[in-house]
Amino acid sequence: MNRLKQHLLLLLALVFVTSSCVNTKTTTLKTEDCINSVEGTLIDMTGLDGCGWMIKLKDGKKVNPTNLKRFNIALTANKNITFSYTKNNDIVGICMAGQIVDITCIQDQSKE
After folding, report:
1. Is residue 3 part of a domain?
2. What pTM did the predictor assign?
3. Mean pLDDT for the chain?
4. Would you say residue 6 lies in a domain?
5. At 80, which CATH number?
6. Whole domain around residue 75: which residue ranges?
7. Per DSSP, what are the bridge partners of residue 79?
8. Model confidence over 65-90: pLDDT tens digits?
């Protein structure tokens, strides 16, 4: 009976681990597919503790994307992009340099 409980517990742990894996699928969409897109510039803030790649908007504000690496775009400092995003109020970041957002669509402006 004790062995059965161990196997059941192991199976349950395995189910939780595999179901919690993040989808790392690369996504590419065209600007025409982006709803409410805005222009921005990629900025490399990896030199600051807890920070990474961020996007500077035209008004000077910065947004901190949670899923930028899921998109098929080369991360290059000062690259102009057009993108759509939603605010993510469920996550607290330690960078504290901008609003945390989830990118829904991104387009490299240098390819146009």
Report:
1. no
2. 0.69
3. 80
4. no
5. 2.40.50.500
6. 26-111
7. none
8. 999 999 999 999 999 999 999 999 99
Span 48-62, pLDDT tens digits:
888 999 999 999 999
What does the angle CA 28 – CA 30 – CA 32 come to, to the nearest 5 degrees? 150
The HSE-up count of residue 55 (CA atoms within 13 Å, CB side) is: 27
Q: What is the 3-state secondary structure (H, E, C) of the chain?
A: CHHHHHHHHHHHHHHHHHHCCCCCCCECCCHHHCCCCEEEEEEECCCCCCCCEEEEECCCCEEEECCHHHECCCCCCCCEEEEEEEECCCCCCCCCCCEEEEEEEEEEHHHC
Q: Is residue 11 part of a domain?
A: no
Number of compact structural domains in the chain: 1
100 in any annotated domain:
yes
